[in-house]
């Protein structure tokens, strides 16, 4: 009994500080990459008057008209998706004590969505190659099994990207100062959902760009709270 009572406290994970700070940096940077991607796409779409949201032929025409911009956009989307998988769990760990279920749903949906987005974005590299090769590839793309079998992942990305972000913003708003973040940071995060839905309705990509910029500001406050956390508190949050 006495020997057990005198056992020393367990040593903290020596990687806790590195993991906490890395995730804090990755969280906003991931969405800065997505903002650059969206801005490049919006610029290409505005300058050409084309979009890839319709038929394969329209997407190929856009890729042929602005291959450099779209290639850069894809690369930023890929890097941003990888960083989102690293950074979003930091938001979950921060919000868990105050809003455990809501934050879990939000982050699980967003991580799943951006894993799907990585695959979707990577596949678009082939679209650029086909668009610049001079072959008639629209019919082949329309007949591709990816169009059918890939639909669940497109849907998962849409849910994670739009609804997941909305839930994360709500979690931040409701948790508020209990986790060291101002409530309105959550409102800024929700601006991505508002901007993206507005873009879908009115067909103007710059609404999504504006919403993404405000989302980054809100996520920066979440990241700052993670950065300020002590390693002991970080480990205790599980």
Structural description of this entry:
- With 238 residues, the protein is mainly alpha-helical.
- 82% of the residues lie in helices and 0% in strands.
- Helix 2 packs antiparallel against helix 10, helix 4 packs antiparallel against helix 5 and helix 9 runs antiparallel to helix 10.
- The radius of gyration is 21 Å and the shape is elongated.
- The two termini are 28 Å apart.
The gyration radius over C-alpha positions equals 21 Å
The strand count comes to 0
Shape: elongated
How many separate helices?
Answer: 11
- Distance between the amino and carboxyl termini: 28 Å
Major sheet: none
Order of helices and strands: HHHHHHHHHHH
Fraction in beta strands: under 5%
The average pLDDT score comes to 90
Structural class: mainly alpha
Q: Point out poorly predicted stretches.
A: 3-10
The helix fraction, in percent, is over 70%
Give a quick set of tags describing it.
238 residues; single chain; disordered N terminus; mainly alpha
Topology:
Blueprint: H1 2-5, H2 16-48, H3 56-65, H4 67-95, H5 100-133, H6 138-143, H7 146-149, H8 151-175, H9 183-202, H10 205-228, H11 231-236
Sum this structure up briefly.
By secondary structure, the chain is mainly alpha-helical. The chain is 82% helix and 0% strand.
